[in-house]
Give the backbone structure.
Amino acid sequence: MNRSIAIPAQQTRLQLVRFGKPQEQGVVQLERDAPVPVPTGSQVLVKMLYAPLHPADMLTIVGFYPGVRYVVEQKPGFVPGLEGCGVVVARGEQATIPLGTRVVPLLGEEAGSWQQFVCVEGKQCICVPDDIDDRIAAQLFVNPLTVVGLYKEMEAAVDLVDNPWILQTAANSTLGRMMIALAKHHSLKTINVVRSAATVQELKELGADVVIVVEQEDDPHSNKSWDRKVLEITQGKGVAAVLEAVGSDIGSMACSCLQSGGLYLAYGAQSGKPIRMSNSDLIFKDITCKGFWLSRWFRKQPPHVVEDLFDLFRSQVFKPCIQTVLPLDRYLEAFRLQREKNRRGKILFSLAME
């Protein structure tokens, strides 16, 4: 094994002890004496620098996110965390990534970024260019690449020149803000659905064409609802595509806003509830409803898709939006902040706990 620094025998990590609400006692536990793995063969040991907290991570803790195999198997006792950034500090005899290289380990269905050291196959690492900041690299995969993938799926399925209007739910999220930026870059028009009015002005400053606040538009005492506003904005045509992350009534209503031949693309399920879909829309409007899972999409992409993503940061189409950086031992505070509906950026864990 090749190594460049003194590597401790133990590390600090967060372990999911049992599935449940993230802030409940005994669900997640901080371990300060967990073993540091030893890389063999073509593996590398990555000293983690930063790891973000995503909605999917929260769903993993609850036991609802099937993108992590331990959730599917209902086997707690693992380290959550879908992504992060670190430095290669040791490697197996057959590994080729140079020591000291900054990398994004692609953890996939194993998860595991909420710890100080991660051991992965070298081929599972994206090397980070010198001009990309650590905090950008730490949140490179889940949000920005998903935005790129969603755009490419829309581009392939619908005519975005004939109708440039798209609608997205959960628009105040980090991903939602990046989609506003990418849509503007490609001359698309966005209708952005949010729960609260607190960030409306911020989203408009980012380039949002329309922001719909659900709690303002829906009137339980009348037949008025925000989907009618969408039809007014699009002059009765509807939107070319819907990018949906919530489910439940919001997702159902978003689906009803599609034009004939429109695309409903689901990439999240924050409410944990399904949508209701109209047979009439499926038959007479010929809409397409499908899901988007980044891991599956990414496996089919050419290598340059990552370099293209770096270029979007270099050109500042994508800009990092970080609300706060917290040490791993303040995880309960991070979970609380993640649940706030007016959150204004990504929450990062700093893994360099001395």
Notes: DSSP finds 13 helices and 16 strands in the chain. The mean pLDDT is 93.
